[in-house]
Amino acid sequence: MADKLRIDKLLAHMGFGTRSEIKRAVKIGKVAVDGKVVKDSGLIVVPAEQTVTFDGEKVAYRDVIYLMLNKPQGVISATEDGRERTVIDLLASEDCLLKPFPVGRLDKDTVGLLLLTNDGGLAHELLSPRKHVDKTYEALVQGNVNEDDVKAFQEGVTLDDGYVTLPAQLQLMNRSLPRQSDASSAEQEGDSLPPVHSLIHLTIHEGKFHQVKRMFEAVGKKVVTLKRLSMGPLTLDEYLPEGHYRELTEEEVHQLKAHRGSGK
Hints:
Blueprint: E1 5-6, H1 7-13, H2 19-27, E2 31-33, E3 36-37, E4 44-45, E5 52-54, E6 57-58, E7 66-71, H3 93-96, E8 101-102, E9 111-117, H4 120-127, E10 135-142, H5 147-155, E11 169-176, H6 180-188, E12 197-204, H7 211-218, E13 222-231, E14 234-235, E15 245-247, H8 250-258
Parallel strand pairs: 9-13
Antiparallel strand pairs: 1-4, 2-3, 2-5, 5-6, 7-9, 7-15, 8-9, 10-12, 10-13, 11-12, 13-14
Organism: Paenibacillus paeoniae
GO biological process, one term: enzyme-directed rRNA pseudouridine synthesis
Family: Belongs to the pseudouridine synthase RsuA family.
């Protein structure tokens, strides 16, 4: 059965003003339903079946929103905070009307894919520990990440609180070794060599607090930068700059709703 709404509530929901402002607009004939001007702000309409216009503009009604954000550094994954800038502060006012919230959390200094939605059912499915939804990260790690680490991550590593992680897939992308000139200079000056850094991709199937950083700490290495590339079937748009966002396509929404993780 199609949803029914009072016309003043519908218009307020879509950002056309407060209920009192909309009531005045209705009285002066700015609102029409199916081409006929209405004068009752309490009129019940079916948005999915009727055409509502405000001052000649068609009202495109929706009650859910799905946004892909390329989260930048320095903002927190929350809807509000008294001191810190949040991911919601990055949204245009019209995209805040439906009250989206971040699905899961990225650390303040972590960048990359973050889904924002007001679809609580979908959020629950993606975050449920029983679902084991894949999350892939790119990290620059201080230290020589090697095949021993690949094996250790595949078997599960023990974190600082004693928790043993689920098997994770670690892929070595390349390593940024000290240049010969840097090494020679360091030796001549009696200094230690610059540290080795490794670029990796890591896919985990759970979401413990600071998990990626703690996994590398468990094998004696330190994450320098961290970026989330994907969550389940949703992959970060390579053309989306940090701090920017876009709505998901219908196909992306469909894929997310159809996805049940490896724990199905």
